[in-house]
């Protein structure tokens, strides 16, 4: 089976639930650096995936939007266009039935080119990869 999944990322502003001011969190922007995924089958067998960026992209999150930085053919990260709203990462996995997905995404406060603090990790809570229609979120 093949599963398509989406993960949404945003730097919340103070007026959004769970949001903080730049002063409270200690930075105004944060850039995705790496990701670590763990896929676990029902029998406990795990497959781990580590890598830089997500599908060649290194979004720089800021309140109310993000910058679409991408890796070029030489492995350099190029500054991208500014975008409004939430960054949506979509990918797919060809795994057997009854697999769960979890992991973390490592961000750098500021940007990869100009870090403003120590990297931090954002947990991606475990969720099932299923084929039943009632399990889809739209």
UniProtKB/TrEMBL annotation:
Pfam families: DUF525 (PF04379). Gene3D superfamilies: ApaG domain (2.60.40.1470). Residues 1-136 form the ApaG domain. InterPro entries: ApaG_domain (IPR007474), ApaG_sf (IPR036767). Transmembrane segments: none annotated. SUPFAM superfamilies: ApaG-like. PANTHER family: F-BOX PROTEIN SKIP16. This is ApaG domain-containing protein.
């Amino acid at each position: 089976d093949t599963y398509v999944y989406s993960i949404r990322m945003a730097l919340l502003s103070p007026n959004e639930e769970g949001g903080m001011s730049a002063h409270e969190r200690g930075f105004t922007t944060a850039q995705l650096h790496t990701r670590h995924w763990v896929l676990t089958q029902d029998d406990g067998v795990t497959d781990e995936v580590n890598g830089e960026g997500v599908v060649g992209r290194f979004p720089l999150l800021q309140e109310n939007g993000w910058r679409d930085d991408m890796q070029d053919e030489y492995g350099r990260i190029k500054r991208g266009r500014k975008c409004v709203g939430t960054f949506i990462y979509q990918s797919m996995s060809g795994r057997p039935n009854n697999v769960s997905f979890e992991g973390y995404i490592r961000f750098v406060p500021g940007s990869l080119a100009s870090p403003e603090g120590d990297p931090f990790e954002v947990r991606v809570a475990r969720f099932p990869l299923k084929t039943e229609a009632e399990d889809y979120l739209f």
